Structure formats: C-alpha cells, structure tokens
Amino acid sequence: MSPEHVTSRSVRVPALLGIVLAVVAGCASPTPSSTGRTGNGPVVVATAGEPDTLNPVLNYGPDGASLIFDGLVARDARNQLVPALARELPTVSADGRTVTATLREGVLFHDGSPLTARDVVFTYQAVLDPKVDSTLRSDLDMLASVAAPDPGTVVFTLKHPYAPFVQRLALGIVPAKAFEGQDVNRAEFNRRPIGTGPYRMTSWTPGDRLVLAANERYWGGRPANPGVVVAFVADDNVRAQRMRAGEFDAAELPPKLATGFDGQTAQRVHKVPTADYRGVMLPMGNPVLGDLAVRRALHAAVDRQAMVTGVLGGAGEPAFGPVPPTSEFAEPSVTGRPTADRAAATALLDAAGWTPGPDGIRAKAGRQAAFTLMYPATDSLRKELALAVTADARKIGIAVTPQGLTWDAITPQMKTDALVMGYGTPYDPDFVSFKLFGSAFAGQGFFNPGSYRSATVDAALQAGRDNTDPAARRAAYATFQQQLAADVPWVFLTYLQHTYVVRDTVTGVTPRVEPHEHDVANSLWWNVHTWEKKS
C-alpha cells in the first residue's frame, strides 16, 4: 500500500452494528485479562484509511502495532524498543554485522501452530525475494542473510553495519507453512491473515470494515476486550457525524472537526504529538516548479503560523523539514519565519526574471507562473492547506489551481503536478527519508514522486545508514537537511497533532508520539488490546 492511499466507501450503520454483535457472539465470554480487568464489549474505532493487504511482507504495519501480528521487538508508550517475540532485545556483534535474536517460548499463531525460527527466516527472506512485490526490500538492502541455527534462534548477517537495524525487527512475523506452494503476492493469506498478535481477523469487507476477535492464547495475556471493529470511513465530515451519532467508541478526526467535541460530557478529545508533517511536493518535471527561484519563493511566501492557527486550530506547529524538532537528529539551522516573508519571495522572483503581467500573475519567457496543486478530495485538512497555499502564492504573483481528486486520479499526475502530501516518523531518520528523497527512488510511486535528485543528499542519506557512530550520523543528517532546505523539493508546511475523539465509556487509552499513518497500525489504538469499554 502506498502511504498516501485511502479508500472512499463508508460503513452502513446496520451492517456495522450487526458486525459488533457478531464479534460478541464469536468470542468466548469475557473473562479477566492478564491485568485482572474484565472486558465489556468490542471496541469500535473509525479511521480514514484502509490497508491494501494484511500481510506484513507486503508492507502492512512494518513498524509494528498492527494488532494482528508481532515483531521480534515492539515499542512501548515512549516509543522505546522492548522485546516482543524475542525473549530479550536482540544482540549486536562488536563489528555491527551480526544480530542475534532468541525467541520467546510457547508462542502460538492464531491457528494454534507454534512460532519457530523458521517462520522468522521465511518472513525476512520473503521481503528480500525479488519475486515478491514488497516495498520493504530497500529497507533491508543491508541484510545479507537470515538463518535459524536452531528452532529458537535467529541470526541476521548484514553486508555492512546499519545503525537502526534492530528497529527494523518490529516487522510482523508470518507463518511459513501458510505460504507453501503459493505466490506471496496473490496468497489468500493477504486477506485472511494468521499472526501471533492480540487479535485474530474474523472478517474484512474492503472499503467497509475490519473485524478482529481477541486472541485468547495471546502470549502477552488475553486482551481486555473481546474484539475490535475498525470502520473505514474516508470522508472526514461523515466520520465526525457518525461519531457524534454514537456509532463509534473512538475516531480520528481533523483538528477543526475534533474541536467541535470539546466540552461534551460523553466524549473527550485527545491531541497527540506526532512527527507527521504536511507539505507540498513540487515535481522537478513541472516547467514552472522546476525553477529553483519559484520553489524558494513559495517556501518564503507561505504563512505557516496562519495555517497552524486557522487550519489546525492550534493543533500543530510550523514545519521546515522532514526531521521533527523533537528528534536528536534535527538540524537547528534548518528553520525559517513562521509567518510569510513576501518581500523575500518577490525579490527571488524578480531576480529570476519572473515579471508581473497585467493580471498580476508573473511570467517568464512567455510562460505564466502557474501550476496545479492536487489534494485528496475527501481530506478536509489537506483541502484547507491547499487553499491556504493558493492564497499565499497569489499574493506574490503565482497562480495556483487547487484540485481535489481521488487517489487513482492523483497517482498518474504526480510527476508533473504538485501535491499536498503527508509523511513523517518519530523513529530513525533513515526511515521514510531514504526513499522519499533518494535519487534511486525518483518517480517510484509515492516515494520521491517529484523525481528530486541530489548527489549530496544521496551521499548524506547513505552515510546516515552506514555509520553506527552517533556523531557521524548526526553530521550526515545535518548535511541532508541543509541541502534539502537549499533545493526545496518540498514546501514543508506544518507538523500535526493527531486529534481523536474517544467516548468516556472507554478506558486504557495511552497516547504516544505518532508517525504518519492512515490505517490500523500506530494510531491511538496501538494498545487497544488494553482498552475496556464500560456498558
């Protein structure tokens, strides 16, 4: 699944309520969880996006918290690594090229079969297999081999040291036997998965809902509730209306819509810190945006603070690059004015020969300073950001045409038209940025769709991967951020706070700093197996 892909069909109320009853009927009677609590019904959550597959090998929940699967490691409420299927955190050899994991004993897949090292080996070998359409392969290009010297031990051998490798071991493990004689790309497993996680899938209606039942034999203790229903509702306003109608126990909503729930007695609003940024991807192949002066002018002209205040309702902060300010790798010199600097923007355009015409729109060599700015039509937040950019650009003589489209319509136009995009991770800076800005990924779907190329950026990103010394890594990522700021392949706008509305009948919610996500994993419900819903 592309990280920017969402679906558009919503859930009918009777169908959803019927599924909730089915979950209750399909689960054993509620019994005390490992914490001594008693679950009182399935939790119903609503999200904007939906995965294309439920197979971790094909990029479902690669950073963990997928609910259906476990990795060798997981992340706690502070996003620190903790053991999961591994009995303890994997060990790294002195030369950084051998990583060894010892498996937890007694772990069962949902079908009752035992987890062994063979399953771990198969999972990682499948990602590396060129016949498998896994977008994760480049994430593991440092992996030379993975082997199982015995059923309880897995040894990863790397081609070269890779500092964040243990973080990559959050990938969910799949059972090898489920794929015997099958093409991983088309396996039935992709829609009917078997994992070791706290929930097992009972049904998935594409564009509608995913129904999960508690894994009674979960190694981490029985979940505190009998199941979870994930409703896929792409339209923000519809999701808010249905949350207000009481259909959901929790829903992700844009800040402005979430604010409408402030002060209500039956629900509470959670504003969760994130590393999730929004920005305008500027394609290098566009005849106007290919001009560095235009890109730099747009960077200076946008009023980020006004966007935070007006569009986000204060739930965010100005963004100037892809490494969040909370990261130890953030480069402090990469910043700017939160408000618009129209004088600097117009000076850049004047110097580059873009002169205003009778209508106020600039032109150069007979070409107007005009371009299309796409956004997903169902995303109200991105629509408002697109309109704000349009207004700011007009003030410096650049004509922007905002266009709300489906993702199917957006995808083929990304090489030539600008797009309001979202990405970001609170984990290692190698994650996301290596693909999003690396030349090797130019024009490959949602990774580097604008075909940005920089030898300096490529070298810095590679150095950040190759070095295990923290100081060397910080220097590499400083160079990366500085060059990106000079080239402006994106106009970064804001970092978000993710906003959720949760009913007061739900307990156990534990927010943590979130990445950019669109579906089930790593949202507020990362620990939904600890939630309880009171009747």
UniProtKB/TrEMBL annotation:
The Solute-binding protein family domain, residue ranges: 80-440
The yes or no answer to whether the keyword Transport is present is yes
An example GO BP is:
peptide transport
GO molecular-function annotation terms?
peptide transmembrane transporter activity
Pfam families xrefs: SBP_bac_5
The record's Gene Ontology cellular component field reads: ATP-binding cassette (ABC) transporter complex; periplasmic space
Per the record, the domain of life is: Bacteria
Q: Does the keyword Ubl conjugation apply?
A: no
Identify the InterPro entries for this entry: Peptide/Ni-bd, SBP_5, SBP_5_dom
Q: Which CDD domains match?
A: PBP2_NikA_DppA_OppA_like_19
- Give UniProt keywords alphabetically: Signal, Transport
Stated family: Belongs to the bacterial solute-binding protein 5 family.
- Can you say what this protein is called? 4-phytase
